[in-house]
PTS EIIA type-2 domain-containing protein (Bordetella genomosp. 13), 162 residues
Amino acid sequence: MGVIDDFLQHDRILVDVDVRDKDQLFQIASERLAAACRISAEDILAALVRRERLGSTALGQEVAMPHASVEGLEGIRLLYMRLKRPCFFDDGAGSRVVHALFIIVPAPANQTHLDILAEAAGLFSQAEFQKALRQCDQADQVREAFRRWNERNPALSDRDAH
């Protein structure tokens, strides 16, 4: 199993989410992440927006990995959202996003945070992986896709998870 498999829980996988814009995407993500920890949705949203102001977390190829370190957070939390229709990052003129992997980590961030980012970037850079995710209708199928693709790519799953 890869690092993502350790942290991506069933209740934090959403498929065919309909959002009007990036602001609504971040709001929904913050609320869902807050339900999984003792940090308020407002504090999570503020951390994500602060990080996004440093530079877009949209990677291209319809993928974004919004991430932030959050004061007082106990443990890493991930949330995967596949959008029903693309959402534009960067004021509508930038990258189209269909797959969003939100990552929040305790402050200060550590090596595991970097491992998750590297693993996700490696997975999402593969068109076949994205295609597999688009075919998933349920959270369990998405989690299985992450696990299965990590097994296919030993270089992604051989890193220490903790």
